[in-house]
Amino acid sequence: MPLHNRKPPRVSEGVTFEEFAMARLPSLLRYAVVLTGDRDLAQDVVQEVLARAQVRWRRISESDVPEAYVRRMVLNEYLSWRRSWQFRNVHAVGERLIDLDDARGGSRDHADGVVEADALWSRLSTLGRKQRAVLVLRYYEQMEDEAIADVLGCAPATVRSHASRALKTLRLSSERQERIHAEEKS
């Protein structure tokens, strides 16, 4: 079972912030990388969130699932990020996507996988933050539309609308790239 599909373990009372951060940091970073498409920005987002979570740890640790609370903080930080990161180049994290594919039993040429992952990241970088967040929550976090709506503070119909528009944008971008590739071959 892929790591991102597992339910986060329930944190028992008495777990310190340091223990939580050490145990969940890799998972939080992977989540932030998928959201942002940029390892450096993901690290900045997670660092900012963990700094705020440490101050609020007593209250966070009393929640039913502290990791879900912190993941929501990561999502909110990503959605409200003040830097003009959308103008930055989104760096491919192809190896990570290839690792996920290999974990699912894929056996493809590594170079093809990196090229496809790079193309995917390029297309994802054209989406708005909410559209991208909806796709990450739906397909990476495996959340239902109602849960996504709760996290984003909107109606489930808005989630479906964001997803529909994002997928349409990705399809159009993919078709455009295929046409360009076909023209280059001829």
Automatic annotation (TrEMBL):
Name the UniProt key words of this record, in alphabetical order: DNA-binding, Sigma factor, Transcription, Transcription regulation
GO BP terms in the entry: DNA-templated transcription initiation
Q: Which domain of life is it from?
A: Bacteria
- On whether Aminoacyl-tRNA synthetase is a keyword of this UniProt record, the answer is no
Q: Say if the entry is tagged with keyword Glycoprotein.
A: no
Extract one GO molecular function annotation from the record. Answer: sigma factor activity
Start and end of every RNA polymerase sigma factor 70 region 4 type domain? 118-170
According to the entry, every stretch annotated as the RNA polymerase sigma-70 region domain falls at 24-84
NCBIfam families tied to this protein: sigma70-ECF (TIGR02937)
User: What protein family is recorded?
Assistant: Belongs to the sigma-70 factor family. ECF subfamily.
Q: Under what name is this protein listed?
A: RNA polymerase subunit sigma-24
| Organism in which the protein naturally occurs | Paractinoplanes tereljensis
